[in-house]
Amino acid sequence: MLLSTIISRVEELKELLSLQQKYLRGATSDPEEAEQGFLTVSHTLNMLEQMHSLQPSVIVKYNDTIVGYALVMKRECREIIPILVPMFEHLDKIFYRHKPLKNYSYYVMGQVCVDKPFRSQGVFDTLYQKHKELFKEEFDFVVTEISTRNHRSLNAHKRVGFKTIDVFKDATDEWEIVLWDWS
Fold first, then answer.
1. Range of 144's domain?
2. What average pLDDT does range 19-35 have in this prediction?
3. Per-residue CA distances from 40 to 112, 115, 147 (Å)
4. Is 180 exposed, middle or buried (0-12, 13-18, 19+ CB in 10 A)?
5. Are the CB atoms for 124 and 58 separated by under 8 Å?
6. What is the pLDDT of residues 105-154, one digit of tens each?
7. Given 27, 53, 156, 176, which is the most exposed site by the fewest CB atoms within 10 A?
């Protein structure tokens, strides 16, 4: 049975990191990445512990094994993961509904991953529904950036309710900034 919950133990963070390693860009073949999607950022246990001290992330378990996760990355996390500082700086420049994003209460989806055997079984949607259930009273929305080459992730986010609010290119890739408004 699938169970959605928040991370509560360091062992779960370690298990999350093992799952992450399976799907980082370059871990599988190019055709599989094109079809199944990929993860861009590799975290360390220390990074995750710092992120989770600010706000625990959501996981889905099957028989006590993590089969999916969706990382909460509050804006205070911008210095924890140096590679993401440019993303946060870019977000600070974006306007949404005629107001700068930085004037809203939001967090960044730090990364979402579903283990391949559990894809197309509702795990992705379950992760995001748990986010909305847990965080909609505290935050106006969740925002994230997705590589424009990651069609599976873009389509899944749009299916849940995310809308594209910006597209930009940096030294590493072209990105869509997507936002799920809970107001």
1. 2-181
2. 87
3. 11, 15, 9
4. buried
5. no
6. 999 999 999 999 999 999 999 999 999 999 999 999 999 999 999 999 99
7. 53
Distance of alpha carbon 79 from alpha carbon 60, whole angstroms: 27
Q: What is the CATH number of the domain that holds 52?
A: 3.40.630.30
How far apart (Å, rounded) are the C-alpha atoms in residues 26 and 11? 26
Instruction: State both tokens at 104.
Output: 């809203």
Could you tell me the two tokens for 175?
């990105």
Q: What does the alpha-carbon distance between residue 169 and residue 30 come to, in Å, rounded to a whole number?
A: 21
Task: Please spell the DSSP secondary structure of 57-123, one letter per residue.
Answer: PEEEEETTEEEEEEEEE-GGGGGTSGGGHHHHHHHHH-EETTEEGGGS-EEEEEEEEE-GGGTTTTH
Count of beta carbons in the 10 Å neighbourhood of residue 93: 11
Task: Specify the number of domains making up the chain.
Answer: 1
- Residue 119, classed as helix, strand or coil, is coil
Calculate Rg over the CA atoms of the chain: 15
137 three-state secondary structure: coil
pLDDT band with cut points at 50, 70 and 90 for residue 85: confident
Neighbours of 176 (CB within 10 A): 20
Mean pLDDT on 15-31: 90
Return phi, psi of residue 70, to 5°: -145, 110
Instruction: Check residue 56 and report its DSSP letter.
Output: P
Which residues, in sequence order, are bridge partners of residue 175? 147, 168
